[in-house]
Each structure stands twice: as C-alpha cells, then as structure tokens.
Amino acid sequence: MSRSKSDQKTLTIEEIMRGDVEAERLSDLKFEEALALLEGVVSAVESGNLPLDQAITAYERGTMLIQRLRGLLSGAEEKLRVLT
Length: 84
Prior knowledge:
This protein has about 80 residues and is an all-alpha fold.
C-alpha cells in the first residue's frame, strides 16, 4: 500500500547516506528539501570520512537530488516564461 504525500515522513540525510531512499521519494521533494539534503550529502562526501562504498552511494543519491533540483528549476523557469 503506497502512502500519500502527506503521510510520508521527511527524508533524512542518514537515509540518503545509507541509500535507503527510492527514486520515487526523491521525486516528491520540494526544492528547499532537496537542496538541504544535497548540501548534507556534499558536506559528508567532502569530509573524506566516508568509506568508499558509502561515498559512492552518497554521490549517486546526490546526483539524483541534482536531477530533481534541475527539474524543479526548469519548471519554474517555464512558468516565468509563460507569465512574462
């Protein structure tokens, strides 16, 4: 049984870092949520304190977050184009 958007708990950086997040949940994130998670992922990877497998998983999730952010920005740009 799938949860409605309002029933889904907020994603945490820990879930992202463990890779416990499906792409569908990332696609439901608002811009601010995705950006905050991406900042956490970047910080963790840049720290150099992650084992290689976790760093790779974090990098993959960061890439997915970037795709989500780009999609949201593209949609916003299109709305602005229509309004102007």
